[in-house]
Amino acid sequence: MHRQELQAYREAIAAVTGGRLHLVSGEDVDEMLSEGTELARGEAWQTHDVPQARRVIQEVLPVMDSRRRHAIALCLTEALANALKHAGGGWWQARQLGDTVRIVVQDRGPGIKTSELARATLMQHYSTKNSLGCGFTLMLYYADYLYLHTGPTGTSLVLDFGVVSR
Amino acid sequence: MLKVDVRSAGGVCRVQLDGELDMETAPQLQEVVGKLGDRTLEVDLSGVSFVDSTGLKCLLDISKEWRQKGGQMLILRPQPDVAEVIRLVGLDGLLGQDTGPAVEKGENDERSDHRR
């Protein structure tokens, strides 16, 4: 895709998600991974690694209300499920930047095709694999900001959750 | 981890779940439910703290299977976080009214416990 076309595409996706889903570059992701402090990290290559990741993250999350805690665990699960389904697995990390908890999930799969990107991220119940196709819908609902980098050498998804301590 | 408890009487089967219904445990529910022949299937989620999209897909598949057989599947008593997810993905049509335990203790004509 040409640079101008990609820019228009980025703006369209940001616009229809109310400025919450952004397509970013690999360098942007690297920068996001350097911000704040690491809470935990892990890998998921088999289904049982996913509930394990949930348990690990529940232990390191700062104090917050239980609904938010559930939302973060759910989004981590959905992002890891996508990595397992489409890339055979991947890596995750949780970071804290002030009042924000950041979840990053990365894989080295073939990436989401540009032609499928809008449907994969924005359309409810759209799935290229045999699943409900609602993982992204749930992440779009629960995360405050989502940053996606995808290409032929892998996909990175960054999810930011504002956390109000109680 | 998911505990699946099945109680069946008078054509109504109540499946009580405890734990998490996710990509790891959904096949377990699918397997247990696959052996049931009752007309009405009630899936009680009151003991379920977490359901992901794979778990939701499993519930949707079971519901379709039951409809095809001329029966129905209902989801009962989801916890608030789980109920929100069910509504978000548009499966709230599967939510049934809770009418209390389908079978009282001691009256079970069939009971099995599947623990993993």
The CATH architecture of chain A = 2-Layer Sandwich
- Label the CATH architecture of chain B: 2-Layer Sandwich
Tell me the fraction of residues in β-strands of chain B, as a range: 35-45%
Structural class of chain B: alpha/beta
Reported for the largest beta sheet of chain B, the result is:
5 strands, mixed
- Output the number of helix runs of chain B: 3
Q: How many individual helices of chain A?
A: 6
Into how many domains do the coordinates of chain A divide?
Answer: 1
Number of strands of chain A: 6
Poorly predicted spans of chain A: none
In words, what does this structure look like?
The complex is a heterodimer of chains A (166) and B (116). Chain A is an alpha+beta fold and 166 residues long. Chain A is built from six helices and six strands. In chain A, strand 5 (145-151) and strand 6 form a beta hairpin. The radius of gyration of chain A is 15 Å and the shape is globular. The model of chain A has no long low-confidence stretch (mean pLDDT 90). Chain B has a five-stranded mixed sheet, with helices on both faces. With 116 residues, chain B is α/β, with parallel strands linked by helices. The model of chain B is unreliable at 102-111 (pLDDT under 50). Chain B contains three helices and five strands. The longest helix of chain B has 16 residues, at 53-68. Classes of the chains: A alpha+beta (166), B alpha/beta (116).
